[in-house]
Design goal:
This protein is of the alpha/beta class. The protein has 13 helices and 13 strands. The protein has a 7-stranded mixed β-sheet with strand order 2-8-7-6-5-3-4, with helices on both faces. The longest helix has 25 residues, at 271-295. It is globular, with a radius of gyration of 21 Å.
Length: 360
């Protein structure tokens, strides 16, 4: 082929999402399939969100509010910041891409963990930058190891807190001590996609307040997980106004669609649904812990809606065998799989089929 692609994408593999339910049904000719691979909310979304979307359907011929005015104002009130300190995006995937486009150039470095959300590394490479990988320590971020890797070329540090796929978290004290040591010309991004599921009191729940002291800190949050809006793609980032203005220069003019904006606003207002999502997740997590203990499987205690567990045999094989039985999970590395926490019925179906697979 005579058409040439950019050299930077030569070794990049497309992101692999969790396998869709309909694909598994067709492939194995089975009727009942549960998807516990993509950390989705098993309760769906708030009924108030559905109502808001229905009421907005007649406005689909009109372009979305390109400034996200109402959404930003509501978020500003919720988080006690100014609207200029907020930038919505079409999911956090888009924001990760925009940050790379804005701040990473040829041969620049971005520091990240070895086992974390893969998009951090991909977007760095797309921009011609170099991912600097710091291995996790006991499945958690090695913050001292990250500090040691800082160089004159470092532009960005990616922190996923709690981390995907390990479910581990950085405490407030650890995070503040880390921020104190990071040079102010290096951007630190805290990806808090799973913060609504955190149970520990020493998590940095006040991270948005930290952006007032640390102007090089950005906080990313999403409506995809606990709010159950993964299919509509809406998230937001909070931080220094000037930094967000730079990112805004590479943003598409109507990146968050109209339905996503009204859905997010309705989701914010339904605090009861968020509380229920938290409680269902906690019950499911404790159930899975107990079952893993019975099976003598090592797992990583999680502060998210997913659990990393060592199943004692190749995770890819377990992934395939579980699919044949109508359960979609995620192979991660070696003998480890990641399972999303579902409804109690889904969790029981997962365990029952896992026992069968591990007996083979």
């Amino acid at each position: 082929m005579s058409i040439r692609y950019r050299e930077e994408i030569k070794n990049i593999q497309p992101y692999k999402p969790g396998k869709p339910i309909e694909d598994v049904k067709r492939e194995y000719n089975i009727e009942k399939v549960v998807k516990l691979a993509s950390n989705e909310n098993p309760l769906g979304c708030s009924p108030k969100v559905k109502e808001a979307i229905i009421n907005a359907v007649d406005k689909l011929a009109i372009y979305p509010d390109g400034n996200h005015t109402e959404l930003k104002n509501i978020l500003a009130k919720k988080h006690k910041v100014k609207a200029d300190n907020i930038l919505p995006s079409s999911g956090l995937d888009e924001m990760i891409d925009m940050i790379a486009k804005t701040f990473i150039g040829k041969n620049d470095e971005a520091i990240m963990a070895d086992i974390t959300f893969p998009r951090y590394a991909q977007t760095t490479e797309i921009m011609g930058g170099r991912p600097v990988i710091v291995p996790l320590k006991e499945f958690s971020f090695d913050l001292n190891g990250i500090l040691e890797k800082i160089s004159p070329r470092t532009k960005v540090i990616w922190i996923c807190n709690p981390n995907n796929p390990t479910g581990t978290m950085i405490t407030e004290r650890e995070f503040v001590e880390f921020l104190d040591k990071v040079p102010s010309n290096i951007l630190v991004i805290s990806d808090e996609a799973y913060r609504e599921y955190v149970t520990k009191d020493d998590y940095p729940f006040n991270s948005i307040d930290l952006t007032k002291k640390y102007e090089n800190l950005l906080i990313m949050r999403t409506f995809s997980k606990a709010y159950g809006l993964a299919g509509i793609r809406v998230a937001y980032t909070i931080g220094n106004k000037e930094i967000l203005q730079y990112i805004n220069r590479v943003r598409g003019p109507f990146n968050v669609n109209s339905l996503a904006q009204v859905a997010a606003i309705a989701a914010i207002e339904d605090e009861e649904f968020l509380k229920k999502s938290y409680e269902i997740n906690l019950q499911g997590k404790n159930f899975l812990y107990e079952e893993f203990d019975k099976l003598k499987l090592h797992y990583v205690p999680s502060e998210t809606n997913h659990i990393l567990v060592n199943v004692g045999r190749d995770g890819q094989e377990v992934f395939i065998e579980m699919q044949k039985r109508g359960v979609i999970i995620r192979p991660v590395m070696g003998n480890y799989i990641r399972v999303s926490i579902g409804t109690m019925d889904e969790n029981k179906m997962f365990i029952e089929n896992l026992i069968e697979v591990l007996k083979e």
